[in-house]
């Protein structure tokens, strides 16, 4: 169906059904996308190592924990980005250390799973907020914040009026 416009141009009227037919069915999520490269990180479901913090299976540089357990060493790995942003540690330096233990083995892990297990609320994505507030890492922010909360609780426990003697 075409109609002549006032300026001599031809305009085409397209029905809603025709538009849907041209678009096709909605894309479905691929449960196994295979090896892919996104923003310089290589995601490999077979050969990649999983970061304990972000749970991404990549071929990026990761640091393995060397804490002994009952059945061998601790199996946890941390990627360089999470170790830097969440704990303020340099992955290359920690990889050189012979006895490096992961934040989970040290009891300072701030991933959502470990925080839930401790009965604490998950932090979410705090790396940008921590840097904006002048902290070196999310761990530093959490430590400073807990110290501030403890100080505020101590101050609030004092009597409001001081009795004169």
In short:
This protein has 165 residues and is an alpha+beta fold. The protein has helices at residues 16-23, 80-87, 91-96, 103-106, 112-117, 127-132, 138-157; strands at residues 2-4, 10-12, 36-38, 41-43, 49-50, 57-58, 62-64, 68-69, 72-73, 77-79.
Task: Write structural notes for this entry.
- This protein has helices spanning 16-23, 80-87, 91-96, 103-106, 112-117, 127-132, 138-157; strands spanning 2-4, 10-12, 36-38, 41-43, 49-50, 57-58, 62-64, 68-69, 72-73, 77-79.
- By secondary structure, the chain is of the alpha+beta class.
- The chain has a domain at 32-139.
- The protein is extended, with a radius of gyration of 27 Å.
- The N and C termini lie far apart (98 Å).
**Distance, first to last CA:** 98 Å
Give the total of beta strands.
10
Helix/strand/pairing class, anyone? Answer: alpha+beta
Strand-and-helix sequence, N→C?
EEHEEEEEEEEHHHHHH
- Please indicate the percent range of residues in DSSP E strands (runs of 2 or more): 15-25%
Overall 3D form: extended
Strand order of the largest sheet: 1-2
Low-confidence stretches: none
Count the helices. How many? 7
What Rg is obtained from the alpha carbons, in whole angstroms? 27 Å
């Amino acid at each position: 169906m075409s109609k002549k416009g006032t300026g001599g141009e031809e305009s085409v009227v397209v029905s809603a059904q025709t538009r849907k037919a041209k678009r096709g069915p909605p894309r479905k999520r691929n449960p196994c996308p295979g090896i892919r490269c996104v923003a310089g990180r290589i995601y490999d479901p077979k050969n990649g190592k999983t970061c304990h913090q972000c749970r991404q299976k990549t071929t990026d540089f990761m640091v393995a924990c060397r804490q002994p357990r009952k059945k061998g060493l601790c199996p946890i790995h941390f990627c360089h980005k999470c170790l830097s942003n969440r704990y303020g540690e340099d992955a290359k330096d920690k990889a050189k250390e012979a006895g490096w233990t992961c934040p989970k083995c040290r009891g300072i892990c701030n991933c959502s799973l470990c925080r839930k297990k401790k009965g604490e609320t998950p932090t979410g994505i705090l790396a940008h907020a921590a840097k904006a507030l002048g902290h070196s890492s999310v761990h530093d922010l959490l430590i400073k914040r807990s110290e501030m909360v403890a100080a505020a609780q101590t101050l609030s426990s004092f009597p409001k009026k001081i009795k004169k003697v």
